[in-house]
Design goal:
Number of domains: 1
Largest sheet: 8 strands, mixed
Number of helices: 3
Length: 146
C-alpha cells in the first residue's frame, strides 16, 4: 500500500515565555496554530517554514533548530500529515504586509493561554511542539539533507 502524507512545516518562536501564534478561520472554525503550512512543489522544508511564517505573521523567521518531525492523522480524515517543526527567532516584522487570507490575528501567547484554548487548537501538535520546545528538544539543522 502506498502512503503519501501531506508535508507541512511549522515555526515555534518564543519570546519571554510567549509563543508566536496565528488565529485563523479554517472552514467554520476559529483555530490557533503556529505559523505553518504546506511545502510547495520543489521547495525545501527550511524555505517553506521561512515563507509560511512571513506570509502568516509578517515576521522574518530564522530557523535555528529542527524541533521534530511529527505524524498526525485527523480523527475523521483519511489523510496523514507529516509536520517538520522548527524552533528559531524572528528578527524583523513588515508592519504593512498583508497576511494570508485565513489569518485573523497574530498573537504572542503563553503555554497556559494555549492550554486554555486547547479545544480551539488546530491540531494536538500545537501544544506538543510547545512542550517539546520547553523540554529542550533541539536537533541541528545539519540533520536535514537536501
Amino acid at each position: 500500500m502506498h502512503w503519501q502524507p501531506e508535508i507541512t512545516v511549522a515555526a515555534v518562536v518564543e519570546r519571554a515565555g510567549r509563543f508566536l501564534i496565528v488565529e485563523e478561520r479554517i472552514g467554520r472554525r476559529r483555530v490557533f496554530n503556529q505559523p505553518a503550512g504546506h511545502v510547495e512543489r520543489g521547495e525545501d522544508v527550511l524555505a517553506a517554514v521561512v515563507r509560511e511564517t512571513l506570509e502568516e505573521t509578517a515576521w522574518h523567521f530564522e530557523p535555528q533548530w529542527l524541533l521534530g518531525v511529527y505524524r498526525w492523522r485527523a480523527p475523521r480524515g483519511a489523510r496523514s500529515t507529516l509536520r517538520f517543526a522548527f524552533a528559531g527567532a524572528v528578527r524583523r516584522r513588515e508592519a504593512r504586509r498583508e497576511l494570508d487570507a485565513p489569518v485573523l490575528a497574530v498573537h504572542w501567547l503563553t503555554r497556559l493561554q494555549l492550554l486554555e484554548r486547547a479545544r480551539a487548537l488546530r491540531t494536538p501538535l500545537v501544544l506538543r511542539c510547545v512542550d517539546d520546545y520547553l523540554g529542550g528538544r533541539r536537533v541541528p539543522l545539519s540533520a536535514l539533507a537536501t
